[in-house]
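User: I'm putting together notes for a lab meeting next week and I want to include a structural view of one of the chains we've been expressing. I don't have a solved structure, so I'd like a prediction I can at least talk through. The sequence is below, exactly as it appears in our construct file.
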Amino acid sequence: MFNSSASGSQSSGNRVYRYEVVRLRGHRTSSSVFFNVAYDRMAEFTRQILRQGGKILNVSPLNGDALLMTSSATPATSVDTVEDTAPATPAESTDAAPAAKKKAHADVKVNIYRPNSPLTGKLISNEALVSDGGVGIVQHLKFDISGSELEYTEGQSIGIIPPGKDAKGKPNKLRLYSIASTRHGDDVDDKTVSLCVRELEYKNDAGETIKGVCSSYLCALQPGDPVQITGPSGKEMLLPAEEDTNVIMFATGTGIAPMRAYLWRMFKDNERAANPDYNSYQGKAWLVFGVPQTANILYKEELEEMQTRYPDNFRLTYAISREQQNSEGGRMYIQNRVAENSVELWNMIKNPKTHTYICGLRGMEPGIEEALGAEATKEGIVWKEYVRSMKKEGRWHVETY
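Assistant: Thanks for the context. Below is the predicted structure for the 401-residue chain, given as structure tokens.
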């Protein structure tokens, strides 16, 4: 993913500005995208937006020194600016954070550990998630945070500060990764936090193979190695507290990370036992998961075990692009699966108890909205307006890159 260095340095006095941008290539013309940009990077960021064909509608100041990010709309300019991690959290629009939603998650903590005073955790395990014959390297990493004050909730992220310096001789900036474990950790003992990380690898214009700084660092860690952790951050992807909530999840690749945390909270025995106020999920959960090959289905055994044990509450649908065909004979992507099941999905979405979560590649968003929007139109409902209303209700949650 793209974690822009537009976040700037700590020496900029934490002066941060929110940009509202439209017309970026890869985005719907009418859709606004929000970015938080440090003062000392505003000129560079503005040039990048213009190169992408974007139009800046508004720039307003923000306060505070929380970690700030941009989405993948900004072109990568160096190895340090490109990372394929769990998605960064773009600045939320005011529609996405009404007062009622803030009240619902008022007890969720953020920024317990900051870049200038990170937590030193320790790697417990580093396990491969891609089977033989799969594409790329994706690892499940579990870190020991015992004795610390770090508390987190399903749907939040943590920051990782890789050691060393960037091409300009400055300390490497942290990257955000969505947490893949529940608040109690994989061992359900409140002593760990887990991540799902894909090692970025690509070729530059000269044909040289380049690897992501932080993702490569993490994927190469050995048990016992220390790691600098910040956070937690983000409240956009949190689950509602009610056990009868319906949850629709659209994920690609490492976008599965927060979905795994949700599903563990809903269906894992030890996890349910550890939550006296949330121990018997009664809603309907539906995961549509897009991957290139069967070997790239991350957490496959876990997902299919939960589907087998809870068939009345959990539905699992794969979109395997290189192995399955859509109705037109092309590759099967997540948006094709949504189109196939658009009637059922739309009927679920209309239920005020349904929350929808989208995490992964931004490219899936237009297809998802097109398929669901077609069903809304049949009932005389304007999809764009309906999404806006769901955001105000805190029922539409998106983290894409």
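A couple of points you could mention at the meeting. The chain has three domains: 5-77, 119-233, 246-400. The radius of gyration is 20 Å.

User: Perfect, that's what I needed.
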